[in-house]
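From the pipeline queue, job 12 of 40. The input is one protein chain; the requested action is below.

Action: predict structure.
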Amino acid sequence: MRRLPPAWKASFRASGCCVDEILAAWHDKVTAHLIAWPLSRHIAIDYAETGGAVAQYRIRVSLLDGSLLQCVERVRAGAGHLETEKYSFHWQTPDGTLICRWDNAPHHRELPGFPHHLHEGDENIVLSHAPLDVFTAMSLVETRLIQKK
């Protein structure tokens, strides 16, 4: 669960902004960060929808090393916070080989932290992982690419 920044709360209250506008602003922030990310070569927005207190998107990010990060996230607005209901951050090599995927698909009930998990290098290698959002996924990808050099 992510708390809304105090500045966002104050500006939305002052403007009489509705929940869907908060979610649209959140989506704009996500898109802006992906565009400005130093590792990003190109982004493609497959879909982006906001309505009914829910925002969701699927964005493909081509990275400078040729790999691809596909980001899927669905967020619901609550009382003063945004709750991520569904996410998948799928990172693959230029030839389509899985590097890793963080997601919360409701399988692998045997893992601590269910449903949050990581597919590491292979669909069958599944590890428990803390919940994350697109900003954390970007940071993890960046760290791995730096360590690779």
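Job complete. Residues 2-148 form one domain.
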